[in-house]
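Reviewer comment 2.1 asked that we show a complete input and output for one of the modelled complexes. We chose the flavin-adenine dinucleotide case, as it is the one discussed in the main text.
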Amino acid sequence: MSSKMLKFVNVEKAMPQKREAEKRKFDFDEIYAEFSEQKAEEQASRCSQCGVPFCQVNCPLHNNIPDWLMLTAEGRMQEAYEVSSATNTFPEICGRICPQDRLCEGNCVIEKGFESVSIGAVEKHITETAFDNGWVKPITVKAEKEQSIGIIGAGPAGLAAADLLRRKGYQVVVYDRYDRAGGLLIYGIPGFKLEKDIVTRRHDLLAQGGVVFRLNCEIGKDITFDDLRAKHDAVLIATGVYKARDIELPGSNLNGVVPALDFLIASNRKSLGDSVPEFDNGTLNADGKNVVVIGGGDTAMDCVRTAIRQNAKSVTCLYRRDKANMPGSQREVQNAEEEGVVFQWLSAPQEFIGQEQVTSVSAQRIHLGQPDATGRQVPNLLAGSEFTVSGDLVIKALGFDPEDLPGMFNQSELGVSKWGTISVNWKTMETGIDGVFAAGDIVRGASLVVWGVKDGRDAAEHIDTYIAKTEQQKVQAAE
Ligand code: FAD
Ligand code: SF4
Ligand code: SF4
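Response of the prediction step:
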């Protein structure tokens, strides 16, 4: 093993510098700085090069983490980039926004008493170094194929598939109903976690490499699904999940009670320089308001922190379980607390109060009871524990479900799972329709970027196999 490694005994874990809450809460720039070259090498050298690397096992992409950590520690950055980009289409994005505490880093087995290697930050450093040095190049195709693949959805799943398919020489067209590529990377996740030029840089590279983008084009509306199928030799559905889960309470229809994604999209569009009337007229703008966010996942954390940056008067998060049981990343909760968000744990809203406009939320405390069949403790309302929180903007962040399927494309053969997602054969990612594949959140339900990338890459491989098989069948039929 390289003598550069195994330094965890003497070198403490460090993360890239985080901007102070008092400064960062006034802008939408990322809160973490970059590792310096020396810091990245030092942190990578803490890895003990495990024989069975649990970090890698628990990374959805099975990234070759020990190898790129060793190459980084040895200063062999171009090789580190080659290894890292061999399994991950967007390492600089995953390095920034994967919940590492639940994936690679949470499973790093440096002996007890020592903290995990800062894997995500090193991954980001490797790819940013590659961009700085011009090692990240647009795709060049050696042998063009005549077959074309239509991809519906320019989120991480669709873009990862587009990248791999184009590398294989296919004519790739990506359709998206939005005016920009990136899906939730561009319009969901706020800039303080992922700056937008990181996403547009990837879009530009793909376009330069020959991937054709048809933006502002909704399949099922601007082009029928049947017409799309007729245009392409295979189709990938990577449309994500966008139907907000709702909460039916007295006062739900009051002005000022809004879904999370409407609020985040308005904020992201504003940051991108678009004209956003709902933001400018105050409907989707937290400026000067008492904001209450309902929910405890990543979306809720993005809403509370966005509201802080929009100069809210106060920001309160109501979550029905306790901090230890939050679905969102603990790191994001800590960031939110540092920025001044007030958490009301074990609290559930009961009524939105106001005349036309919401002015407060009546809530009740929760006691966590016995675990149910899923193993999670059941939340029970505590009698006599009612309390009120001022709120003239109430944001519902309770998660997302798929839109109406198969009605979305008017395709009755599109199999639907009991969760409302598209059913696929997991071995091939193929749907019930010949030559139509699916990937990302529309298959898994609301998930993570890294899983979208994994599905997109897998789907690309299976589409390639499908095309080869179809071509072979054509040849055999002609003989
Ligand atoms: P999406 O990113 O949703 O992309 C789907 C695309 O399909 C969209 O661009 C949409 O416009 C397009 N589309 C849909 N229907 C049509 C149609 N009919 N015609 C044309 N185009 C269509 N994950 C993390 O790993 N880390 C995080 O920190 C994180 N934070 C999140 C914060 C928020 C607020 C949200 C909502 C999600 C977050 N996630 C996070 C989850 C992550 O963003 C998703 O799991 C991921 O983006 C899913 O990728 P996808 O490609 O399947 O779908
Ligand atoms: Fe960790 Fe995500 Fe990178 Fe995998 S892709 S190594 S889980 S940060
Ligand atoms: Fe290195 Fe930790 Fe992975 Fe082991 S689990 S190879 S120490 S990063």
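The two ends are 56 Å apart (CA to CA). We note this here for comparison with the apo prediction described in Section 3.2.
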